[in-house]
Amino acid sequence: MIRRLLIFILIAAGLSACGIEEVIRRNDDRYAHPGALDMPLTQVYETYQYKFLDKYRVTHQWLKASACSYSQYERPGVGGKRSYFYDVLDIYEENGVPRHRGSNKNLARYLTSDFYVGKTYVDVSGRLARHQDAETGYRPICFESWWGPSHALNLRLHKMSLAAFEERFTKRYPEGRWSDKARNGRQWRVQETGRDRLRPREDVEGPYLIWATNVADTGYVIALTMTASQDSLANPRFFDALEAVFYHLVDSVKVEPLRQ
Questions:
Q1: CA separation (Å) from 103 to 107, 114, 184, 192, 211?
Q2: What is the DSSP track for 60-122?
Q3: Which stretches in the chain have pLDDT values below 50?
Q4: What's the pLDDT score for residue 135?
Q5: Would you call 36 helix, strand, or coil by DSSP?
Q6: What is the pLDDT of residue 171?
Q7: Nearest to 84 by CA among 111, 66, 108
Q8: What are phi and psi of 117, to 5 degrees?
Q9: What's the whole-model pTM score?
């Protein structure tokens, strides 16, 4: 869309085809290197709230820079200003499958296991082969990353026990140490990896902080993760600022029983 708009503007300005191609190339080059689209940290957060399994009200915040993958609508603001408060459609279960009430959005890919069974095919030698099976579910429902400083934040809502969540991420990040922590009256299971034990950069993944807590007695877990790598140490001010943002998001999580 942006490219088409740029072409229209340049044609209207009377540039030749060669001139148009050169301007577009220069514009594309601005975004061709990793980190070009990194969003700055912001002190403006968005609030998400929803009824969960018709038993609880879940509230949490996320960065204004990137929307979470719910079906939601923003409440009207006051005085022409945005509210940054999103009412998410109720999350309920139908035959054990999590759904949004009033929406066809596929929540299962975020909240549950979605296993891809590899298909068979004929390889270049004419022999029958098969793609590998893969776990494609349990995706973060909120995600933001910064390539330059080598960090990512994500929020997960998974249908699994806290013990199963810990086992899953212990296999993924075996160097992390688990402990129990209380914060703002909520109990959390926490995995921490010291800055002296960070992995070499691989995309924006890598263990640093994981805070996970039960969604009351529902059999679901909410977890927040901050990733880091050895490259993150080159930007200590950003590292510290992002960690402060991470703990703000942890503190924003609320699970309250619905009034009968």
A1: 10, 19, 33, 37, 30
A2: EEEETTS--SS-EEEPP-STT----EEEEPPEEEETTEEEETT-----HHHHS--EEPPPEEE
A3: 1-17, 20-21, 23-33, 117
A4: 59
A5: coil
A6: 94
A7: 66
A8: -95, 120
A9: 0.79
